[in-house]
Amino acid sequence: MPTCPNCSSEKTVKNGHIHHGKQRFKCHECGRQFVENPQKIVIDQDKRELIDRLLLEKISLAGIARAAQVSERWLQTGS
Ligand SMILES: [Zn+2]
After folding, report:
1. What is the pLDDT of residue 79?
2. Ligand 1 centre distance from Cα of residue 66 (Å)
3. What's the gap in Å between 16 CA and the centre of ligand 1?
């Protein structure tokens, strides 16, 4: 089970699904409902290779993010 994004408790339980079929969880400690990794972005291999090439060109992260249509955060953290 994922930890609660609100109180970091590990006492979370499955609590149905949201509209796209993602698993929803509820925290037993604080009652918060949340979806695990709601912003999870799947980047396919072609796009990763494109991004690797763009990074070598010393283009700004903002420019790469726009060109490859990924978030700057993903470029920085990979998630
Ligand atoms: Zn909690």
Report:
1. 63
2. 35
3. 17
